[in-house]
Here is the input.
Amino acid sequence: MMVPPETAAPIAPPADAEDLATGPWGGSGGAAALTAPTPPARLRAPAWADTAAAPQPGERCSTCWGRWWWSERDAPRRGWRCWCCIPAPAGLGVRECET
Ligand SMILES: [Zn+2]
Here is the structure.
């Protein structure tokens, strides 16, 4: 016996059911989210001349990944430097910054 058309029609899945299961929202998006890399740390050069551009929290030295910076306290005309890469001369008055 053949099934009457009016009975079979509601059983048939919607035309887009397969697309919803395997489409862009079907799983590949979730996997990409799990493996997305974390943002890289903000890196700065071991030294720069702009005295107004003080190191900001979270920034690191691009050479040694250091987080301590210094600049002349009384005459900060030469910018900021990484403590590890370019140590301050002994006896020099400095201002320090930890990021
Ligand atoms: Zn450094």
The chain has three helices and six strands. Residues 28-35 form the longest helix (8 residues). Residues 42-98 form one domain. The pocket of zinc ion is lined by residues 46, 61, 63-64, 66, 82, 84-85 (CB under 6 Å).
